[in-house]
Amino acid sequence: ETGVTQTPRHLVMGMTNKKSLKCEQHLGHNAMYWYKQSAKKPLELMFVYSLEERVENNSVPSRFSPECPNSSHLFLHLHTLQPEDSALYLCASSQDLRAGVANEKLFFGSGTQLSVL
Amino acid sequence: GIQVEQSPPDLILQEGANSTLRCNFSDSVNNLQWFHQNPWGQLINLFYIPSGTKQNGRLSATTVATERYSLLYISSSQTTDSGVYFCAVAEYGNKLVFGAGTILRVKS
Prior knowledge:
heterodimer, A: 117 residues, mainly beta, 7-stranded mixed β-sheet, 4-stranded antiparallel β-sheet, globular, B: 108 residues, 6-stranded mixed β-sheet, 11 strands
């Protein structure tokens, strides 16, 4: 148990569906992240939040919409996804951001395995 | 941007054997972390080690920042060590960049 909890663990959705991924951290951290892990590709940073303010958005398509209502919770809202969006979506947190987006030690959740049909 | 290369890409060990995983990076970094991803997808932070040497049980890591590489040592490997090992680095003021990983399989 890393202190970062993600739900659901698995999600199957059609291209016209709307769904949300949830992440909660119990570590008292101030920074939270969404990463995408596709088969045979390195982890890709999608979004970074520090104290509920988005500080990084890596040219992610608008069909992915993050929300950070407080420093303990992070959501990723999904709509009109494509089959190539199927991947493992990982949430992470760290104590703070240093020097912009240079990360401190990262703690990951177990991920949501997403399949888009 | 900074490049991260991990070697070997795949490794098969007999239980009880030792191994060394390598991470090379192309520029100076102020952050380097090693992660283990188990077969269920969980990523566990093993070490935060931008320089120097650290040990945690059967695992140890050494980063030689001036020569731009880091090594992860696994001694007396166990089947539970199987999974993917990632190295991630960040230049000052920049985001973490992950390597492609080393897939480790430990056979009993």
